[in-house]
Amino acid sequence: MVTTRESYYDVLTAAINYFDEHGYDSAEALTFWVLRLRQAAEAELVPPHVLEQNLRDTLGMAYRRLVEDGGILKQHPGVSLFTLNKVRPELRAELDRRILASASLIKLNRDAAIEKTLQRFQGWATSIPVGGAAKTDKPDTKANIRKSMAALPFEERRVLIDQGHKLGAAVNDIVAKGGGAIAAMWQSHYRQANYNFRKDHAARDGNVYLIPDTWATQQGLVRPSSAGWSNKITQPAEEPFCRCWFKYRYNLRDLPESMLTVKGRATLADIRAKVMAS
Question: Using CA atoms in the order 268, 273, 277, 278, what is the torsion angle rounded to 10 degrees?
């Protein structure tokens, strides 16, 4: 059994030393060291309850900024605080869903990292002939075996960042539906230095997509541009590490004229005439 004093690094060092000296001399010895490595690796990780609290703190902070402090309304000019409060239960449910999704993804990543570590160790250990190795580069061997585990903190931060973007996109979408948005303009960060953007996402930048089944489509006031419908493309932040977002449109006057039908142009002209007369 692994004692509380033995770190994962210490157990890995001992395991490498054993096979370097004895070689692969029995399946039992390999099983013994694999078990010790698994136990040490699992003990090295942040406990699940601490991880979940970290997720709640991190995503909760983003949620408070967007929802409780009203930051999301800056992205939705014209949408009222009343509308935000009306969809608040949906927004809270989305936060809880994102926390669960993050925890599940991190657990999967952890399990995969441990399995990759054990696979690398077993591959190396079984390659050592009985009697030990003539010469083993222990630091290099150790680094190669543990690299999946060493990368975990970075990967877990990436998951949190990505889930934060997904939470923001979902909140944006919920508020847009509650506020009656009729179209959405794709916004890409492709101009940002060192941002690893997708070329097809950069090509969408500035495209205005029509949202299906809105009051404007039901009344026959709008039609899709060459960009098409918003539900026919991958959504902002849907793909891993995507930071794109939608800038929503709520009024006929905010759409390119080409997206207005004859009825839509007449309706807009009538609205403008009434505004001028008032």
Answer: 0
